[in-house]
Every structure is written in structure tokens, then in C-alpha cells.
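Running co-folding for zinc ion.
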Amino acid sequence: MKQVVPGVVFIEGRDEFIPDAHMYVIGEPESGDLSIIDAGLMGKEKYKVDSIRESGIDLSHIKRVIMTHTHLDHIGCLPEILKALPEAELWVHAAEAEPMEKGDERVIYGMDMFESMCRAQYGIRPGAFKLAVDRKLSGGETLEMGGMTWEVLHIPGHSPGSIALYCPARRILIPGDVVYADYAIGRFDLHGASGPQHRESLFRLAELDVDILLPGHNRIMTDVPAGYIRETARQWEAYLT
Ligand SMILES: [Zn+2]
Ligand SMILES: [Zn+2]
């Protein structure tokens, strides 16, 4: 756990044989209006909640959990995280919130083989992620949260309801699994994924001025070179057809 910049706490994922998504807590500490971005893998709730507490955050100040998308490595411990945060709402893009509320878990697991493997490994019952979503995002919202302004961008391709959160004043981008450090991008072969949409989403992110990149996995970047996302998109575009 560490503060990346004032207003952003980074709780690094602890990967197992499945990756565990990073969690970010955003908002000015004194605002009492904090947001969590993504939860993580099954069984990581204690580590994540303890890390939030150790960073000096009062759990009652966390007002919402916003999911960049609902893949299992991001949503696995969400039910337990929500239980630990009585004040927190759940915000998810409508394209993934609607199937989730109906108990359609195809996007969550991504592929049938993975679903059976995870059910066996973790004993997850069907319907475990049938959670009520308090706010369905569509992209294009400007969110005033915790003394910061964040824009919501709908960037489908890795998953149908992937979103990025972008803070223009501080040039911070939280892109979920759409783009990572080291010219890497998220996979685009899972249920609801689309190579051409992924390509379009990458070029859309390339238009933003970004100094700090906070992806769902692997290392974070606090000194992003100009043109980094555009160069990444160019390296991958031939595959995104
Ligand atoms: Zn993902
Ligand atoms: Zn992920």
C-alpha cells in the first residue's frame, strides 16, 4: 500500500495462479468522500481491507466501489468488500451491471473452461456475484468525488463494460485492463470482448494527456512519456481486427 500522489492510494494485487487486480482508493483524504476502484480476487478481502485501514483511512469514509469491469480477478472479493463497507454503493457500467444483476456470469468468468476451473478451485456457487448495482454508468459522466473531478470513459473491447476514470487536472488515468505499462494491453478473446473495439478504445485513450497510469495489473507508471498510449495502440493495432 502506498500513496501514489495525494488523493490516490495504491493497494497492489497479490497474484496467485490467477492474477489479483490492483485496488486504488481515490479522493482527498480529508474529504470523507472516498472511492475504491476495483476489489480483487477471491480471498483477498482481508488483505485489501487491512491495507485500507493501515493507510489511515476510516472505512466509513468510503462511499462507493467503482468497477473498471467485472472480470473475476477484479470482482472475486467484491461481495466481502461491500460487507466491510456499510456506506459504500456499487457503481458498474450498464453493459456489465445488467447481466450481473440477472445472474448472467459469462463476462465475469470470460470462458466456460475458466468458470469450471474456478468453481472447483474456489468453491464459488452460481449466483455469487448477483449483486445490486446502485449506479449504472454509461460513459461520459463527470464525477465530482472527494475533492477531485473524474471523467468516465466507456472503453469496450477487453470487456463490454470496461471503463476508464480520468482526472484531467492531475493527468491521472485508471484504465482497468485496457492498457498496461511496458506496451502491454489486456486480452481481447474473452466473452463479450472485441478486437476492433479494443483498438478504438486504445486510440481514444491515446488522445488524453496522461502522466500517471494506474492499470489493473503489473507495474504502475508515474512518469508516462508523451505518446505512450498511442505508441502502444500502434504496436497492437494489426492484431486488433
Ligand atoms: Zn479484465
Ligand atoms: Zn484483470
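Result summary
The pocket of zinc ion (ligand 2) is lined by residues 19, 21, 71, 73-74, 177, 216-217 (CB under 6 Å).
The radius of gyration is 17 Å.
Job closed.
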